[in-house]
């Protein structure tokens, strides 16, 4: 019995050694993911606040940026803006053919930006990553969770869209809205960028009014408000009441360029089928600068022509004045 015991012990030691070698080989085969993204994408550029929070939405497939309700706008107003954001997921190891869970989540915001409220992801077009369910897009709120088909040994990409609210209050200037992308245990971080100017507002100080005039028999004449000088002249008639030139005040970011528009003509009507056209004049229509105090004042005047046979009545009309950042 003693001789048999001595023969078994070496065999048992060899088996334990073999098990140790196999376990070490499995640890070396771990699968590793990495997330690549631009730290400053998307960048929606220069925008303004509005009278209410305004959503700036980046389309996942194209990167085109649209502006929602609220009064915010691009600067310049008629800008066409794109901010395509590409996410790259890379994999190394023996299990890269397996599906991988990916989560996109909103983070903190600075300046007049608010945290991102919605994410979309696109897996068509130039994107090479694919969803495990075969769909070509995915969407969610402040968090988007999805499962990608196996990345394989290498890298795959998809494009990301999001909605970034711009607030009416807060510190103007550079604004950011952070987000993160997690694949497996790897995390990549970035922040949507914008430069935000203060809200632009327009207020009326006085209406354009020619007052009440009495036409002189047998005479033609004009009533004129000269916008450039704010001077009033009347010929061929007698003024019976006060009259005012149209005055408007723009409030916005100091030294920022703006553009305001007023109709070239306004048609007054007396409600009885008769009309009187106003040939409109303004001060500095077109691109102007807000002053260092954050204001810009402009005047709207014009001229009415009449004869002694012009039908009497109270002539009125509404007209639109618009202003935008440039």
The overall strand count is 25
Helix content: under 10%
Low-confidence stretches: 1-28
Mean pLDDT: 90
Radius of gyration: 35 Å
- Structural class assignment: mainly beta
Query: Looking at the chains present, what oligomeric state does this protein adopt?
Result: single chain
Number of helices: 1
Termini separation: 101 Å
Gross morphology is elongated
Task: Give the biggest beta sheet.
Answer: 7 strands, antiparallel
In terms of DSSP E residues, the strand content is over 45%
Would you list the SSEs in sequence order as H and E?
A: HEEEEEEEEEEEEEEEEEEEEEEEEE
Descriptive report:
The chain is mostly beta strands and 326 residues long. Helix content is 8%, strand content 48%. The protein has 1 helix and 25 strands. It has one helix at 2-27, and strands spanning 32-36, 43-48, 54-58, 65-67, 73-74, 85-92, 100-110, 118-122, 137-140, 143-148, 154-166, 173-183, 186-197, 201-206, 213-215, 221-226, 231-235, 237-239, 246-251, 257-261, 265-269, 275-282, 286-289, 295-306, 322-325. The strands form 5 sheets. Strands 1, 3, 4, 6, 8, 9 and 11 form a 7-stranded antiparallel β-sheet that branches. Strands 14, 16, 17, 19, 21, 22 and 24 form a 7-stranded antiparallel β-sheet that branches. Strand 16 and strand 17 form a beta hairpin. The radius of gyration is 35 Å and the shape is elongated. The model is unreliable at 1-28 (pLDDT under 50).
């Amino acid at each position: 019995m003693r001789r048999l015991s001595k023969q078994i012990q070496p065999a048992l030691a060899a088996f334990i050694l073999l098990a140790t070698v196999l376990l070490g080989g499995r640890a070396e085969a771990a699968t590793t993911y990495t997330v690549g993204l631009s730290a400053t994408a998307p960048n929606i550029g220069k925008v303004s606040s509005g009278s209410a929070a305004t959503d700036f939405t980046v389309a996942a497939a194209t990167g085109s940026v649209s502006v929602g309700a609220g009064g915010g706008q691009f600067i310049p107003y008629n800008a066409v803006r794109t901010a395509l954001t590409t996410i790259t997921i890379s994999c190394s190891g023996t299990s890269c053919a397996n599906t991988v869970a990916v989560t996109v989540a909103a983070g903190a915001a600075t300046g007049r930006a608010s945290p991102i409220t919605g994410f979309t992801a696109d897996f068509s077009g130039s994107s090479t990553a694919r969803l495990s369910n075969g769909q070509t897009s995915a969407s969610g709120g402040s968090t988007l969770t999805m499962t990608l088909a196996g990345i394989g040994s290498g890298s795959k990409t998809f494009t990301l869209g999001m909605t970034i609210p711009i607030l009416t209050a807060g510190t103007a200037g550079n604004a950011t809205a952070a987000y993160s992308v997690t694949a497996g245990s790897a995390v990549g971080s970035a922040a949507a960028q914008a430069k935000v100017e203060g809200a632009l507002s327009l207020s009326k100080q006085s209406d354009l009014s020619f007052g009440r005039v009495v036409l002189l028999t047998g005479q033609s004449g004009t009533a004129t408000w000269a916008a450039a000088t704010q001077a009033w002249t009347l010929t061929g008639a007698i003024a019976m009441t006060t009259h005012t030139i149209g005055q408007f005040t723009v409030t916005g970011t100091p030294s920022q360029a703006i553009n305001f528009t007023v109709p070239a003509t306004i048609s007054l009507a007396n409600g009885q089928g008769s009309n009187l056209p106003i040939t409109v004049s303004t001060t500095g229509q077109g691109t102007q600068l807000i002053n260092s105090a954050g204001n810009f004042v402009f005047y709207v005047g014009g001229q009415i022509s009449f004869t002694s046979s012009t039908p009497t009545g109270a002539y009125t009309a509404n007209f639109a004045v618009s202003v935008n950042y440039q």
